[in-house]
Amino acid sequence: MSAHELKVDGLSVRYGHASAVTDATVTVPGGTVTALVGPNGAGKSSLLLAVYGSVPSTGKVTLDGEEVSRLRPAARARAGIAIVPQGRQLFPHLNVADNLQVMAELLHLPKSAVDNALDRFPILRTRLRSLVGVLSGGEQQMLVVSRALMGSPKVLLLDEMMTGLAPLIVQELARTVTGLAREGVAVLLAEPALGVLRSVVDRGYVLVRGEVVAQEEDGGRALDDAYRAAIGVERPRELRPTG
Ligand SMILES: Nc1ncnc2c1ncn2[C@@H]1O[C@H](COP(=O)(O)OP(=O)(O)OP(=O)(O)O)[C@@H](O)[C@H]1O
């Protein structure tokens, strides 16, 4: 698969008179995991939602050189942009299969798409008829990722995907995300702290008060340092290089 590329150029999001994102320029090349880090309220979700088209914005979003900024969310999804939203946004009173079916219909996919979506996380096959509300947090997140992957997206936006999950689940999801990036998907993950994701992140941006204040190309550890410098927090002693 060839590598895809998402470009966000001069993107701004306003809610009434309040500015959530100001003139953000971010590139997400396929083949790498790109992170967007910033404190709570920095505008990470707003930027991701604007790329997906579910909040209004100004600026330009292009996917593989084609402008998608004027498309509605369903059309952007069909163009290849997928999102794992913060808070998951599943239908808790529908079962696993029906939650996937809803996305299959949105993307105009054949019935077999539901079955294919389960290949990444086989444990979900054993839960097909379970109501989503009774799944564990980890299973729900696997379902959200499976749902996002149904249309074989070119761009995957992940909003605080790891929050509140057990370390083993985080590792499994991180492996999946890295694999997708290596397949050429342009992966952008937003987190308020990288934590264990430091080791899977290749490059990224620091967002503070809606503005991109730093860009880092040298991996998650360097991005973490840039983030700490931007918000004026020192790295804990155990994370500092020795010697
Ligand atoms: N629907 C909305 N209406 C009005 N203001 C909003 C709305 N959504 C977000 N905001 C405001 O926009 C700013 C950016 O919020 P956003 O959720 O994008 O940040 P974030 O970095 O994702 O934060 P968090 O990590 O807490 O989700 C915040 O000041 C927030 O209060």
Automatic annotation (TrEMBL):
Q: Which SMART domains match?
A: AAA (SM00382)
Mind telling me which InterPro entries this protein's record contains? AAA+_ATPase, ABC_transporter-like_ATP-bd, ABC_transporter-like_CS, BCAA_Transport_ATP-bd_LivF, P-loop_NTPase
What does the sequence similarity comment in the record state about its family? Belongs to the ABC transporter superfamily.
Q: Which organism is it from?
A: Micromonospora sonneratiae
Which GO MF terms does the UniProt record name?
Answer: ATP binding
Indicate what this protein is called per its UniProt record.
ABC transporter ATP-binding protein
Name the PANTHER family for this protein: ABC TRANSPORTER ATP-BINDING PROTEIN (PTHR43820:SF6), HIGH-AFFINITY BRANCHED-CHAIN AMINO ACID TRANSPORT ATP-BINDING PROTEIN LIVF (PTHR43820)
The source's domain of life comes to Bacteria
Q: Does the keyword Transport apply?
A: yes
- Which keywords does this chain's UniProt record carry? Amino-acid transport, ATP-binding, Nucleotide-binding, Transport
